[in-house]
Amino acid sequence: MMHLGLFIAGEGHHIAAWRDPRARSGASQDIQHFAELARIGERGCFDLLFTADTQAVFYGDDTEQWRRTTQASRLEPITLFSALSMVTEHIGLVCTATTTYLEPYHVARQFASLDKISGGRAGWNLVTSSAPAEAYNFGFDGHPSHEDRYDRAGEFAEVVLGLWDSWQAGAVIEDQDSGIYFDPDKLHRLNHKGKHFSVRGPLTVHPSPQGRPVIVQAGQSEAGRNLAARTAEVIFTVQQDKDEARAFYADIGTRAAAYGRGPGTIKIMPGLLPVVGKTRAQAQEKLETLQSLIHPELGLARLSAMLGTDLSGFDQDGPLPDLPQSAEQPGRQKVVSELARRENLTIRQLYQRVTGVRGHRVLCGTAEEIANSMEDWYRSGAADGFNIMSLTYPDELNQFVDEVIPILRTKGLYRSRYEGRTLRENLGLSTPG
After folding, report:
1. Long-range Cβ pairs for the range 335-343 (8 Å, 24+)
2. pTM summary value
């Protein structure tokens, strides 16, 4: 079956969604808004809810240009998803925690707690920080290099996975007569000593019904792909072209096999922003209305950050120049640069095209056209499913659930009810030994 994630983000995924007259004021800080989205997602039988995170209001030092966006107005995701676990029963809960500025024990304990609270529905989106400004919130004077961030991330993941295996099956005895609560031979210290971390363990949280949280990753650079092939069970990707998506899928499979991982152990889910209309022209009009609300200052600034180069000195109506490799997001830079070359886009056309949805694929059309395109990617080996984003919430999400999902079900591609109670069961992933 095709798998679907629901990528939730405040007023909507478009960078100008908050300017839409239908937008709900203050949605990015409103728990009732997110609870409504979670219930819609469960009504649509989505595999999981997902939210990204950044721990800085501004991406870089130039704060003026960021005053036009709500992208950094976020609730802390573990707290948010713990609350959402109480208003849902089946849908998975995947949120982000950075390996660059947090500590493995904190992350392991928080996600194990969310997994236990939710009955086995948690997943950790393992990322390295791409926002340099985060460094200043954690006592650092500068942001680590891409290479150093991924070196730390690999060891970080190793520690977290080790801590999640602290409690062996049958460790908790709870024998009231003898006064023995647990068998110390079945509670394991990690005793990790490495380049970046020294962590003894064990963890204070028992395993959930799914064994441990699902590992999700989103890196597209060489280092990101290697980390994903080694650790990830779900990969969120940024793909614009089906053939490139198929090549990425095959590449991850080859890399995973080198780590002794077989087919089906990693689910690949590109981001997709579907814009549904009664006609394709109506859907396109919806998108263009929001595109027109992207202020040029913001569009150019976001594109510059995405590509790792200040583009303000170039002609916005000229072609994208050759760029040095980004130190922050080389994988996304490659995808966006290739899109500009392939479609001969000017800088202005490029920021209108990609900054509204951070480079993800936008699909405008009727419900049937959108379902057909999703089927094509799925059946051609480009994806196991999609991480669905909506222009605005909740209207666009409701329309996708009410109009596109029934067509996917008619095609025999999508569930009508959840197969299991845990995220692993619904994704078709095995329970770790």
Report:
1. 335/220, 335/238, 335/239, 335/240, 335/244, 335/359, 336/303, 336/306, 336/307, 337/307, 338/240, 338/241, 338/244, 339/240, 342/241
2. 0.90
